Amino acid sequence: MTDIKINRALISVSNKLGAVDFAKSLSKCGIEIISTGGTMKAIRAAGIPVTYVSDVTGFPEIMDGRVKTLNPKIHGGILAVRDNPEHVKQMQENNIQPIDLVVVNLYPFKATIRKENVTLAEAVENIDIGGPAMIRAAAKNFKFVTVVTNPDSYEEIAKMIAENGGVDYDTRKKLAAEAFAHTADYDLMIADYLSKK
Prior knowledge:
Helices cover 52% and strands 12% of the residues. It has 10 helices and 7 strands. The termini are far apart.
């Protein structure tokens, strides 16, 4: 499989280390960037063009941010099988644009539960839902979508995109495996915490 050209990226990160520089390198390559709340503010503050996720979904972030990316305009854009004519037709019918790159890391559950006197309610609020859903969707569709969960990968991926316009199949597959390991570790940590409470 050849590189899949990246035209549109979604960036929604709890750990913002390197995210703005990564967004800048993507923008220089002509890639449209979609983002959520705090990440969008950081990208916009750096003077990088960014589209608020609510402007894509047509729906506000609600329930204290619990619901923002759980929407067909996001998940349809990530999960669509690009060489399936029926999927392409449904995207067109529902005005869903493809998302080629998903850059997500998760709410800091581990850091939260390490805090002294943290309550169960505080811990529960730091269980990410939309993040794992996007990561898993992108990882499942690695044939067409690149998923990045580790800030240490930003430089390598930015270089690859700058040189080739996209990311090769083997790298997408490797990143998908890393992504599933990331969400699996996260869920195990939550299960372990809740079982001890």
